[in-house]
Amino acid sequence: MDAMPFPSSLYVHLPWCVKKCPYCDFNSHEDAILKDKKKYIAALKKDIAMEGHRFSGAILKTIFIGGGTPNLFTPEEINELINEIKFYFKFNKHIEITMEVNPGSLEKKKLSDYKLAGINRLSIGAQSFNPQLLKLLGRTHNVEDIFSTIENARLADFKNINLDLMFGLPSQTMKLAQKDLREAINLNPEHISYYQLTVEPNTIFYKKRPKNLPSSDRLYNMHESGLEILEAANYSRYEISAFAKPQEECQHNLNYWIFGDYIAVGAGAHGKYTINNDVYRYQKPSLPRAYVNTNFEKNDFKLKKLKQSEIIFDYMLNNLRLISGFKETHFEDFTNISFNIIEQKLVKLKRLGLMQNDGEHCWQLTALGLRFLDDAQAEFLP
Fold first, then answer.
1. How far apart are CA 143 and CA 130, in angstroms?
2. Any idea what DSSP says for residue 289?
3. Nearest residue to 11 via CA among 33, 26, 1
4. Per-residue pLDDT reduced to its tens digit, 210-224
5. Does 31 or 272 have the greater pLDDT score?
6. pLDDT value at position 3?
7. Interatomic CA distance for residues 364 and 347, integer angstroms
8. How far apart are CA 205 and CA 193, in angstroms?
9. Which domains are present in the chain?
């Protein structure tokens, strides 16, 4: 294989929030800098043009607008960005265009305008349906905001909605975790991202650890109970923390997890592409001010050609998250590396009860392996 096809996914980063959540380690900044929005949009346009020239001929199947809180940008500004992307790239007939939104102040008219701008999938950051837990998480919305956002999204004719929900929160009991999940299911979203709160470096929670975090035993029981509740409600687990109704998997995230290539625009955005058997990763400047001052004509951003060991780790870091696992031929096609290089490590994980394979040369984590995903991934560290 001489070269992979051009990337078919594009990520757009809008880095501002009303308030930085204490658990968040994403590249986001409080909206005191929103006065710079016009400059930022102008920089995004230059970035899109640069990527459009570099990947001329690319046909996009997915676009994901993340943050931050993208709905701090008006529907008119989002429309402006999508039109700019459309000028430089071809769109697949069934393109999935997702935008992250935070509940609150999202009335039907505004959501209808986002729909008209081209957004056809919403990812709503609910996180919890418990007022006290929302407050502990530093969220700026209340429970009623979640209900009204879903209702207004349906009135605006959005037929593809994801709800983000967390468990393992401070002082959260099994009963509260189950109640949160049932509240989410009752809203009937097409997709639910159900993930455990983790205390990451460079967050407020890391500097001042919250009290009464659930024990590891309670976390395990919460998770297993959640899996049962989701399965009973016809949400299939297709990734470690992603659950979807039939045919409603997030295509953009799936492309990440299968080690697909993708284009990135915006402050701190990461991209990946493959040319002539070589895999490259790149990152745009993280600080909005530095990003705005980037000379895009000179391709002024971090670019790294991955070593073979790094390609293997990146591939396994992503593909092991998928419940379906990966085929040996898929590994070779997407890495241009012989499967024999990793076979012994997989056999070792199989002996430990973390991996299994079938007669179709497909490898996937066992139930035990999914529980100890980090350990399985660590086996492939460079």
1. 7
2. H
3. 26
4. 898 999 999 999 999
5. 272
6. 47
7. 12
8. 21
9. 9-256 (3.20.20.70), 307-382 (1.10.10.10)
**139-159 residue pLDDT tens:** 999 999 999 999 999 999 999
Cα separation, 140 vs 138, in Å, equals 6
How many other β-carbons are positioned within 10 Å of the β-carbon of residue 42? 11
What's the rounded Cα separation, in Å, for the pair 61 and 251? Answer: 8
**Angle, helix 328-335 to helix 308-319, in steps of 10 degrees:** 130
Whether 32 shows a pLDDT value over 70: the answer reads no
**Cα(40)–Cα(35) distance, integer angstroms:** 10
Six token digits for residue 121: 């999938």
Q: Are strands 121-127 and 90-101 parallel, antiparallel or unpaired?
A: parallel
- Confirm if 120 and 97 have CB atoms less than 8 A apart: yes
Q: What is the DSSP string of 133-198?
A: HHHHTT-S--HHHHHHHHHHHHHTT---EEEEEEES-TT--HHHHHHHHHHHHHT--SEEEEEE--
Whose CA is closest to 154, among 111, 110, 197? 111
pLDDT digits (tens, 9 = 90+) for 96-142: 999 999 998 687 789 999 999 999 999 999 999 999 999 999 999 99
Q: How far apart are CA 190 and CA 120, in angstroms?
A: 13
Question: What is the model's pLDDT at position 23?
Answer: 84
How buried is 280 (Cβ within 10 angstroms: 0-12 exposed, 13-18 middle, 19+ buried)? middle
Question: In the structure encoding, which two tokens stand for residue 324, read together?
Answer: 């379906």
318 within 8 A of 312, measured Cβ to Cβ: no
* pLDDT score of 1: 35
CA distance 167 to 360: 36
Residue 17 pairs in a beta bridge with 30
Q: How far is Cα 219 from Cα 237, in angstroms, rounded to an integer?
A: 18
- Structure letter (DSSP) for residue 7: P
Residue 116 contacts residue 153 (beta carbons within 8 Å)? no
Could you tell me the pTM of the whole model? Answer: 0.95
pLDDT of residue 2: 41
**Confidence class for position 37, pLDDT limits 50, 70, 90:** confident
Instruction: Count Cα atoms within 13 angstroms, Cβ side, for 373.
Output: 15
Q: Are the beta carbons of 101 and 74 closer than 8 angstroms?
A: no
pLDDT confidence of residue 346: 97
Query: If 0-12 CB within 10 Å is exposed, 13-18 middle and 19+ buried, where does residue 128 land?
Result: buried
